[in-house]
Specification:
This protein has seven helices and seven strands, in the order E-H-E-H-E-H-E-H-E-H-E-H-H-E. Strands 3-2-1-4-5-6-7 form a seven-stranded parallel β-sheet, with helices on both faces. The protein is an alpha/beta fold and 257 residues long. The protein has one domain: 3-Layer(aba) Sandwich (Rossmann fold). Bound molecules: NADP nicotinamide-adenine-dinucleotide phosphate. The site of NADP nicotinamide-adenine-dinucleotide phosphate has 29 residues, from helix 1.
Length: 257
């Protein structure tokens, strides 16, 4: 056996760029990666939130604010990260939810969700790959969603972007594998973050939300950011060295496509 259990989930000496790292799943991925030995570039549209994440990470934390709906902002993020160290890992986490019935979807809402959730992932992959290809190695992880597997009324635009991310992951795995770059995804089910359970909810509303979503899972549970971060760490590390083109469903069994 050449891959040591546990040791294989270390990321020592690697620099990771994480978008959407200012809160929720992105922040947790940053903390997991740093605990595994990586240097972490915490990026978010909200610079203060990214700074808080970097402060939690400690000495291995760096901050580069970026707006993933802007391709040039992503390029500046990649350049700033490379000035610290070669980018070995890139995790596209930034995303926004949007619930609206088809006939209520405005052009503004459509543009915002597709530019952040889909275009942002595409150009993030491109920025990472352009820098990883000459070094013949790296790993990219795209955060998808259960919504790509399970049609939910009012989530058409969101689901469409996440389904596109799943196909992008597979396409790029085929294209970048010969360059030593693995591309995978993680599709969370309902996970407790500011996106799903904002602070403004009362205790009763929060409990009802959790109960409603837990009831959809054979495990009778909802996810926490650590559940998603653990899967991302596996895919980023040598433990996942033979895995590419996959989107790992971390959803409590709510969807089993
Ligand atoms: P979150 O706590 O809202 O985190 C998303 C982060 O992305 C926020 O810090 C947000 O900043 C940032 N962001 C928004 N627009 C951005 C932009 N244009 N450029 C850069 N950063 C931007 O939500 P989360 O639940 O952790 O979601 C993370 C990812 O998981 C998303 O892709 C989401 O679709 C996916 N996901 C979540 C769940 C779930 O149940 N939580 C389930 C399936 C998939 P602001 O707060 O300032 O907007």
């Amino acid at each position: 056996m050449t891959v040591e259990p546990w040791a294989s989930q270390r990321l020592d000496g690697k620099l990771a760029v994480i978008t959407g790292a200012g809160s929720g799943i992105g922040r947790e991925v940053a903390l997991f990666f740093a605990a595994a030995g990586a240097q972490v570039v915490a990026s978010d549209i909200d610079g203060n939130a990214a700074r808080e994440t970097a402060a939690l990470v400690g000495a291995a934390g760096h901050v580069v604010p970026a707006d993933v709906s802007d391709r040039l902002s992503i390029e500046r993020l990649a350049d700033a990260a490379e000035a610290i160290a070669p980018i070995a890992l890139w995790v596209n986490v930034a995303g926004v939810g949007a619930a609206a019935s088809l006939c209520d979807v405005t052009p503004d809402l459509y543009d915002r969700v597709t530019r952040i959730n889909m275009d942002g992932v595409f150009w993030g992959c491109a920025a990472a790959a352009r820098r990883m290809i000459p070094r013949k190695g790296g790993a990219i992880i795209n955060i998808s969603s259960n919504a790509a597997d399970q049609p939910i009324p009012t989530l058409s635009v969101y689901a469409m972007t996440k389904a596109a991310v799943n196909m992008l992951t597979r396409s790029l795995a085929a294209e970048l594998g010969p360059h030593g770059i693995r591309v995978n995804g993680v599709a969370p089910g309902f996970t407790l973050t500011g996106m799903t359970a904002p602070d403004r909810l009362t205790d009763e509303e929060r409990a009802a939300l959790i109960a409603r979503n837990a009831a959809r899972s054979p495990l009778g549970a909802v996810g926490e950011p650590c559940d998603i971060a653990q899967a991302v760490l596996y895919l980023a590390s040598d433990a996942g060295r033979f895995v590419t083109g996959q989107t790992l469903r971390v959803n409590g069994g709510v969807a089993m496509p």
